[in-house]
Design goal:
The protein is α+β, with helices and mostly antiparallel strands. Helices cover 29% and strands 37% of the residues. Helix 4 (113-121) packs across helix 5.
């Protein structure tokens, strides 16, 4: 059966994410994030999608982390969702930009207190001498913020505005289906590529 293309890729993404939310045991919103180091080497890790709409795909992090520093130097990134239970992938290439402060504040306020304290205590991607040091920093932040925990100034979200979105669906004989959407100003061009 051949899939029917949608006028825009976000409808398809929403359908596929909803299906993943019913079939994936852990973190259906997990996505690989690829950046580049200053010398051009690829850098990859898994992050969690926290929001998405037609403006793009949002994740949050410490801006001084390795990924934060790499994105600040080169905003071209790629995302990859892999839903093994569905035999589907979504590949997204685009540019990352910081979300507005009010958006980051609103999301940060929804996080569990432990996660909020951890965002203050962690010097993400920096050397850590031992776990006790981290535990002490968390205790220090808990004492500093006995009530509401504000968003740290160096913690925010990145929105990836896609230029290319590919939907990959496994097929028998490795005759996979690959639908590609390319942004053309304010519209999307659709095509297929060989598996």
């Amino acid at each position: 059966m051949t899939l029917q293309p949608h006028a825009a890729p976000f409808v398809r993404f929403g359908e596929w994410l909803a299906a993943a939310e019913t079939s994936e045991i852990n973190d259906p919103n997990a996505m690989a994030l690829a950046t580049a180091t200053p010398d051009g080497a690829p850098s990859l890790r898994v992050v969690l999608l926290k929001a998405w709409d037609e403006r793009g795909f949002v994740f949050y992090t410490n801006l001084d982390s390795q990924k934060g520093s790499e994105i600040a130097a080169n905003a071209q990134v790629h995302l990859n969702f892999h839903w093994k239970s569905l035999q589907r992938q979504v590949r997204i290439g685009g540019h990352a930009a910081l979300v507005p402060d009010d958006e980051a504040d609103a999301y940060f306020a929804t996080r569990p207190r432990e996660s909020q304290l951890g965002a203050w205590a962690s010097l993400q991607s920096q050397p850590l001498p031992d776990r006790e040091t981290f535990a002490a920093r968390i205790a220090e932040m808990a004492a500093r913020f006995p009530g509401d925990v504000p968003r740290p100034p160096r913690w925010s979200g990145w929105r990836v505005t896609p230029q290319r979105i590919e939907f990959w669906l496994a097929r028998d004989g490795r005759w996979h289906e690959r639908e590609v959407f390319l942004r053309d100003d304010d519209s999307w061009q659709f095509g297929l590529v060989y598996p």
